[in-house]
Amino acid sequence: MNVNRLFVALVFACSVPLTAAAATISPSSLADGTYTVTVEKIVDAKHVQVKMDNGSDTTLAAGRASVDFSKVQPNDQLKLSVIAGAVVVYMDLTTH
After folding, report:
1. Does 35 reside within a domain?
2. What is the pLDDT of residues 43-81, one digit of tens each?
3. Is residue 5 part of a domain?
4. Which is it for strands 47-52 and 77-83: parallel, antiparallel or unpaired?
5. In 3D, which of 30, 50, 32, 31 has the Cα closest to residue 41?
6. Is residue 71 a part of any domain in this protein?
7. In the chain, how many domains are there?
């Protein structure tokens, strides 16, 4: 009985990092287009960590000098346009 519990614990421990890694995507792999995302963390004024609608996480960079993430907050919903993996324009859909 203890061997079974140990096996299950070992399988679970090994699968957790794989699951977390599989959910993170590179911004350069995003197709150019418009996305609706949820803000997870503001890294700085030019970088924001988001959760995509499909559940994947990514950190996006500003693609223009006019893009400034310092005014958004965690859990805000953003509609943004991505070109070559960078945000060229966004709109905050959340009312504060």
Report:
1. yes
2. 999 999 999 998 999 999 999 999 999 999 999 999 999
3. no
4. unpaired
5. 50
6. yes
7. 1
